[in-house]
Amino acid sequence: MRLAVLKERRGGETRVAATPETAKKLAALGCKVAIEMGAGMASGYPDALYADAGAEIAPDAAAALFGAGIVLKVRAPLVAGEGEIDELALMHRGALLVGTLEAVANPDRAAALAAAGIDACSMELAPRTTRAQSMDILSSQANLAGYRAVIEGAGAFDKAFPMLMTAAGTIPAANAFIMGAGVAGLQAIATARRLGARVSATDVRPAAKEEIKSLGAAFVGYEDEESKQAQTAGGYAKQLSAEFYAKQAEVVAAHIAKQDIVVCTALVQGRRAPTLVTEAMVASMKPGSVIVDIAADSGGNCAATRPGEMYVTENGVKILGYTNWPGRIANAASALYARNLLTFLTTFWDKETTAPKLPPEDDIVQGVTLTRGGAVVHPQLAAK
Ligand code: NAD
Question: Tell me: domain 2-135+329-375, CATH 3.40.50.720, correct?
């Protein structure tokens, strides 16, 4: 079974779907691994390391994909008109594609994959269950994004995070406020605490309050009868009423004016990120304060965020609105992403045929399968 790994071409993506470590393990499963030349360069994995791991270095995407029954990607393959090459047209009918295909937000993509006869698995749709944890790309990538957000926030802040008592005087500890305490937010809390900041955090899910406190941060937030029901069965935050958000904003407004660093991570699945930091709140902050908005991919939690950019507001607040935060720590993010994909393949590997066997009734397979046998089968898409 030939397995191809392509260089990512979409939107400046820096990550890669297999590392030399996973390439070696994929080969041990019985795969003939082909890596497109330069696929790991942007994340610090040169071709020579893949070659040492036993992979073939293919000169271009067409050569890597030739005869490939499995294709590993970070982002969805390019189709005609989207970039320099039509990656989808180079894939074989019947091939299994595993990646972050983001087809729920781009339903045409699922239709194109089905029309091309690709069996596509989109790993961001995996259930958040204990069994799926080691294949959970949302968690592995969000964890690193949360860490990186604090590190870049600290880099942009020209005071100190810890209290520094020196012979020349004392620099006070920074106040860091983390908005949204899911996977990224909890890692941001832990990282800011390790750097010595005074950390507070907010969330709407009742379970998050205890998690915030258990990491040694103060909980700041608004709670009422509505917020007691703020969590879906899948563990995500629900979209709440305008009245709730107005009350939450009152509590946040008073707190935010005293913060040096604000890290925004709040998301509501399938929707634009909620606006939690208004222009007026930004205007209330001290010059030199930093807002890091890792929700920028979904529009941002801060009204003043410019997705993809860093800029300084008129009152001297730096807003880091970069997108693709895992791609800003591409070596580690690729290492974890590649292991998530390896675990998925290993879990559903048939040793006898040395090929993946994806039982349609399995909850993980059901969760991630977008297309099978030329049809769109995912429940979130099939009805559209
Ligand atoms: P996410 O990325 O969807 O959202 C980030 C956080 O933003 C969430 O904590 C959410 O409650 C919060 N949020 C939404 N609206 C907000 C608002 N108005 N104000 C403040 N915060 C707001 O979440 P995630 O990191 O993907 O985690 C989602 C859930 O999945 C959590 O309950 C997490 O514990 C759970 N989870 C479970 C597993 C597992 O069991 N295998 C793995 C990972 C995550």
Answer: yes
